[in-house]
C-alpha cells in the first residue's frame, strides 16, 4: 500500500441538518451532524475547517434525484451547494445518487432499535455513511478491487 491514502468526506444535505462521514478509502464512518437551518455559508465554513483538520482530498455529496430520475427543488439546492463547496474548498465534489439512502438509514436504525426521537437526529449521519460507502464500493469495483 502506498503512503498516499485518499481521504474522503461524505455529505447528506437535509433540510435542517448535514450528515457528515469520513473515510480513508475503504470504510465510511459517521463523523458529525451539523444543524444549519438553510445557512449554507455557515455549513461551507464549518466544512472547510473539517476538511483541513481531516486532510480531505475528495467530497462525495448525496444527490437527491426524484425516483423518476428528474431533478426537483432539493436537487437544485444540492447543486447550488456543490458549486459553493467547490469554489470555497478547491476540491472536487462528486455527486452520488442518494435515492433511498434515508429509507435504508431509517431501517438500519430501526433494526438497531433506536427510539424514534433519537432516530430522527441520526438519520442524516447514517445516510452520509451510506452515500460515501456506495461511492467507495462502486469505485473499488471500477478499479477491480
What does this protein structure show overall?
The chain has a single domain, classed as 2-Layer Sandwich (Nucleotidyltransferase, domain 5). It is of the alpha/beta class and 145 residues long. The radius of gyration is 15 Å and the shape is globular. A five-stranded mixed beta sheet has the order 3-2-1-4-5. It is built from four helices and five strands, in the order βββαβαβαα. The two termini are 13 Å apart.
Question: Briefly, what is this?
Answer:
By secondary structure, the protein is an alpha/beta fold. It has 4 helices and 5 strands; from the N terminus they run βββαβαβαα. The mean pLDDT is 84.
- pLDDT < 50 stretches: none
- Mean of the pLDDT scores? 84
The span between the termini is 13 Å
DSSP helix fraction: 40-55%
Share of residues in strands: 15-25%
Q: What is the radius of gyration computed over CA atoms, rounded to a whole number of angstroms?
A: 15 Å
Please work out how many helical segments DSSP would assign.
Answer: 4
Strand order of the largest sheet: 3-2-1-4-5
Give a quick account of the main beta sheet: strands, pairing sense, barrel closure.
5 strands, mixed
Essential attributes:
single chain, 145 residues, globular, 4 helices, Nucleotidyltransferase, domain 5, alpha/beta
Amino acid at each position: 500500500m502506498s503512503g498516499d491514502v485518499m481521504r474522503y468526506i461524505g455529505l447528506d444535505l437535509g433540510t435542517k441538518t448535514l450528515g457528515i462521514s469520513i473515510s480513508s478509502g475503504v470504510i465510511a464512518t459517521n463523523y458529525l451532524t451539523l444543524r444549519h437551518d438553510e445557512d449554507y455559508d455557515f455549513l461551507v465554513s464549518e466544512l472547510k475547517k473539517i476538511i483541513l483538520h481531516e486532510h480531505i482530498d475528495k467530497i462525495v455529496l448525496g444527490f437527491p434525484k426524484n425516483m423518476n430520475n428528474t431533478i426537483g427543488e432539493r436537487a437544485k439546492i444540492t447543486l447550488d451547494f456543490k458549486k459553493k463547496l467547490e469554489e470555497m474548498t478547491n476540491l472536487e465534489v462528486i455527486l452520488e445518487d442518494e435515492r433511498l439512502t434515508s429509507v435504508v438509514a431509517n431501517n438500519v436504525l430501526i433494526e438497531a432499535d433506536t427510539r424514534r426521537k433519537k432516530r430522527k437526529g441520526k438519520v442524516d449521519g447514517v445516510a452520509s455513511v451510506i452515500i460515501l460507502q456506495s461511492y467507495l464500493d462502486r469505485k473499488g469495483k471500477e478499479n477491480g478491487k
